[in-house]
Structures are given as structure tokens and as C-alpha cells.
Amino acid sequence: MYKLLCVGGTFDAMHIGHEALLNEAFAAGEHVLIGLTTNAYVKAHKKQVVNAFAQRKSMLHAWLTAHDFYQGRFAIVPLNDAFGPATRDVQLEAIVVSEETKNRAEEVNRVRKKVGLPHLDILVVPMVVAEDRKPVSSSRIREGKISVWGKLMLPDALRNELAQPLGIIRTGSQIRASFQAHRSDTLITVGDLTTKTILSEGITPALMIVDHRVGRRPYNALKPLIEEHGFRRIAVVSGPGYISQEAVHAITESLEHPEGSHTVIEVDGEEDLLALIAIREAPLGSVVFYGQPPIPAWACGPEISGIVEVIVTQEKQKQAIALLKQFVSR
User: Fold this and answer.
1) 228-261: per-residue pLDDT in tens?
2) Has residue 330 been placed in a domain?
3) Is 135 domain-assigned?
4) What is the dihedral of CA 234, 239, 245, 249, to 10 degrees?
5) Are 239 and 209 in contact (CB under 8 A)?
6) pLDDT tens per residue across span 3-15
7) Which of 32, 36, 130, 282 has its CA 20 to 30 A from that of 207?
8) Alpha helix locations (H) across 182-273?
9) Domain containing 172: what range?
């Protein structure tokens, strides 16, 4: 462990990306020097609106003091330039940076070499991404695109659009015919009744996403089947009304799992919105099935319901991505 290392930034709207950076710093160093950009620096180098130095320092200090293990191990210093004490402090041994700012750390070492100071070890922390697979940033939080935890929140204006099927609604005998026609494909089901129906046909999807609820009531019919077949199980929290990062990771990881495995993602919350992630992440040519609540067949016409069949193509993935881009934070 290093005796003293440094980390720096604007630390505006404290979020999970900042937390990852700071947690790595405290895991690697006994003492951490935290550089915080001043109002003058922000005005000269940042295009977007940023909270004042005093407010950012207060939020940063509040986060640090909420962690007992970090007490007495940090100092917050103002950064009036890009480097601050990193190019001057002889006691520093390492610098913690994100992938985005690695080049600046390398520049710090070039300056230190010129003035005869020892080289700093560079510890690079991977960028933390939100559910749309873009980095979590203060600017995106301010724009309302994501929350501080990287969740994608469903806007009310999008609810009617999401009620429309993303594929073909199969009803009655069409459901069984569709299952059988695609049984050799990579299959993904979203929803308890859809999953129960396909398992009853003797077909086991590669990935099943359920919440053990039907119509907001507990539904336990799948639990003995999951136990009986010994499916791989992943528990996540997601929804209603938002898509969690852990649910996205679970879906992505499951679809990358070796062929032949069968995974059930059990959602504490609501699984409906995860159909969008399944379509976005599924291999081309695979099929996503999910339940469709009753909708009018045409204006003032009869209502139809059933199971939606989505054959994953590039166009379907683009459609899912376009919908996900409209999600915002609350």
C-alpha cells in the first residue's frame, strides 16, 4: 500500500464514477490527497455549468465522512491548474485516474521528471457505465439522462409507446407454432407466464427473466420448475419504472455464457422493461418472447393479447436502443 497518493477532479454531482475513483484511491493508499478544481479553473476549462467550489467541496466532504474507514486519511486541496500538487509534492508515490484522464497522469510524470522528482505509479480505474453503456458523468446527470446511480428511468411520456409490441403478437395456436419453429434458435423469455408456457412445450430458453408475479400478484408456479431443472439462477433488483445496472450486467453476462447453459434471472421488482435490454444484447438471429397485455387491434376495435415474438435483427436492436435513449433520471 502506498503511504500517500493523489486523485483529482471537479467532483460535481457525486456519482458512482466518482465513488469508484475514490474507493480505489483509499484501497491503494494509506493517505489520499484529493485535488478539487476551483471556480476559476472550471470557468476557464469547462463549457457546462458546474456547482460552486464550496458546494462541491461540501458534497465531497460529506461523502468521505460517511465512510468511517476513510476518516483521518484524506485532505482536500484546491486545484487552480491541471496538475496541482501532483507535480510538486515529493512525498507522493502514486496517482489515481480514470481511463479518460490517463494522459494527464502521464504528463504529470513528464513534468516531475523535468524537475527531478520521482515517477508516480499510475493507477487507472475503468470508466463506470450506465445502462445505455455510456460513461456515467456529471454532465449527463445534469441533463437528466441518467441518475447518480446510473439507472435508466422510464419517462411517463414513453409508457404508451412501450405498450405497443416490438414484434409480432402470437395468439392461440400460433404461440405453440412459433415456439416450435424457433426451438433450435437462441431463445430468451421475459415474463412468468411466457416462460411457463414455453417450458410446458418441452423447450428450455437460454435465458429466462421472471419476477414471480403475474398481474402484480405473486406467482409461484415457476419456482418448482426452476428447482427441478437446476437452472443457473441470478437474483437482481430492477423496476418498476426503471432498469438497474445489475440487471443489465446479469443479462449481458448470461448471453455471453457458454452455449448449453440455461439461466433464470429472478427480478425483485418488475421485469417488463428488461425485454429492451434482452433485445439490445441478444445475438442476431435469436428470438425474444415476452407477454403482451391487451391492446386494441385497431381504433375502437377488439383487444388482443398474447405473446410477442421478436426476431433479433440489427433494426430491432436499433429500435430498442432508440427507446432506451429516451429514458431519463428522476
Assistant:
1) 989 999 998 888 888 887 888 889 888 886 555 7
2) no
3) no
4) 30
5) no
6) 999 999 999 877 8
7) 130
8) 192-200, 222-229, 245-255
9) 156-324
